[in-house]
What does this fold into?
Amino acid sequence: MAKIKIPPLFNELMNEYNKKGELLDILRDIKNIKDELEYQNWDKIFHKHRNKEDAKKEWLSIKFLRKQLFKKINLLEGESFNLIINNVIQQRLHQIDKKAGGNIGIIEDGIIDRSNQQRYLIHSLISEESISSAQLEGAATTTKVAKKMLNEERAPKNKSERMIINNFLLMKKAISSKNRELSSELILEFHKIAVAEVAESNAIAGEFRNTNDITVAEINTGDTLWTPPCFKEIEKHIKLLSNFANENHEDGNNFIHPVVKGIILHFIIGYVHPFGDGNGRVARAVFYWFMLKSGYWLFEYISISKLLKDASTKYTKSFQYVETDENDLTYFIDYHTKIIVNSIDSLTKYIRKKEEEFAKFNLMVETLVVKHKLVFRQIEILKLIYKSPGKTFTVKEIKNKFSVAENTARKDLKLFVKMGVLVERRTIKSKFDYVAVDMRDILE
It folds into this structure.
């Protein structure tokens, strides 16, 4: 990935064109950036114009108007950040509010039932986030192998698998901590889980870095993209960030939309880079923690890392644009609100597909379902049995895949033995596993 171009400084452009007597003409041609479909960056403006003088003039007019619209936020000592919530971002925030918060949105359409019958989705989608987040950080394991490992609670065989286990535990920690306030202690707890046994760059799990021997570099070229603040400032920065996270921003002139605030927390962890390794994983965990704390329950189900992984260059650039353009957080907010909306849309398609599969399969095995009074979870297990004649199922696998107690998983499997679709088999350790028969013989 090529390094982005550093934009010319606003004050220098103002002085340059004022001396040339062209400033007023340039400012008369200002466009209404509130209605822009895309929050433009200097890279795009620079490459759009053959005449680079025209690029500088357009950039000056854009920056002039942005400065009138900026909301300034003091997040770190001696350093403020700017943002604009334009119409496009507002529209996305409205969609997220409708679909991901409170008791409205997707649940109203029947796409997600929050009762126990679909709790297994939480596990499968937390798995998706933990796998994608690890892959985003370089874990070299296929999604299929990783899901099998999580479902079977198999011990990791290598560093990549250890990263995925860590991220799975990290997501569960973020969910269980949603009633806590943000603090250095909580962030360090997140970090300890994230890098346990996989820490690089001399990082110590659960401790802030104690050196400045760290830069954010481009993976392929090694070019320095960002040099984080001095390690001596980390604890102070994290304390200020925690104060910001815990402060009430829901009223009056102090208002910051919760989704925007969560995105800001994500960015600042990456900006301060408090750890030698694991900053991205901790930043995303803090984001999820805040979304759940703010009542956006759907974030238990969605994976943003999958889409970030699929567009990792844009993810990196969204950081760089902020850092090289007067701390303008709008770039990061613009990109991430788009990712969140796309993640919710992906979840919606996933659930609809599951419901269609469920309805079709239910018709096929209707007699069995009615006779044995099967619930949604048990029908899903039956579907797995139907698809996999000869496959061996274990209590642990069912427990993890469907987020139920071990005793519930065992009862389910024994029910299927009674129905004649599984065969119980004693293992060497005097435990039992369950082998699927060919259900087509039974149904026919």
Q: What stands out?
A: The CA atoms of residues 192 and 205 lie 4 Å apart. The mean pLDDT is 83. Residues 330-364 form the longest helix (35 residues).
